[in-house]
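Need a sequence for this fold. Nothing fancy.
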């Protein structure tokens, strides 16, 4: 398969996506970290999965993707690693009319993101859920999906249910998926879980595909 072409900064050796100026150990260090955690490694080893580093963890410039990729991602007590995973169905990598609807994102969260003592700040929980929604759309864009799936999207609404306190430091995984599409609107859901598989937080969100510039 020819590598997709896109200005996005997703890193995925399996897809031939290694943007220029990507830190040389960005992908390998994330894979090594999560592979060392038994419950995460089990999920990574499922057949047919493709691993990738989300764009937000590999910023192009100091003017964009700074919150996740720089402010948090370059702080050893912040967001230490992020690794995405998806399972393409038949034709999904080559058929522009067949978008990806579900992704998983693994996050290694340091104690610097606590609110209450040893508990992840609620705003950070919201940010990781919101970011996971955006990753679905970024992946469809980098895979060259036809509009509206392949367009840039923005959050229109976000509703979060906090089920349990999320301890820090910790490793969590967020599963995000598209429930339905209506014109330029994508209706989405996500869940954050820990090692025991219990839902720690869940979210509903509506995203809007941006109109093309005239």
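Here you go.
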């Amino acid at each position: 398969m020819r590598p997709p072409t896109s200005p996005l900064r997703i890193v995925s050796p399996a897809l031939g996506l290694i943007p220029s100026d990507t830190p040389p150990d960005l992908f390998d260090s994330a894979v090594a970290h999560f592979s060392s955690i038994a419950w995460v490694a089990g999920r990574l080893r499922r057949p047919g999965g493709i691993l990738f580093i989300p764009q937000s963890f590999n910023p192009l410039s100091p003017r964009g993707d700074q919150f996740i990729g720089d402010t948090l991602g370059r702080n050893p007590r912040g967001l230490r690693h992020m690794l995405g995973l998806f399972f393409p169905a038949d034709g999904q990598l080559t058929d522009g009319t067949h978008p990806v609807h579900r992704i998983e994102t693994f996050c290694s969260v340091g104690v610097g993101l606590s609110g209450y003592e040893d508990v992840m700040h609620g705003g950070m929980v919201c940010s990781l859920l919101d970011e996971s929604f955006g990753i679905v759309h970024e992946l469809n864009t980098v895979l060259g999906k036809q509009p509206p799936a392949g367009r840039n999207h923005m959050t229109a609404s976000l509703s979060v249910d906090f089920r349990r306190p999320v301890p820090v430091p910790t490793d969590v995984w967020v599963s995000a998926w598209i429930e339905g599409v209506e014109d330029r609107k994508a209706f989405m859901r996500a869940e954050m879980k820990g090692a025991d598989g219990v839902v720690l937080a869940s979210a509903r969100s509506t995203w809007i595909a941006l109109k093309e510039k005239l």
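For context: Confidence is low (pLDDT under 50) at residues 1-5.
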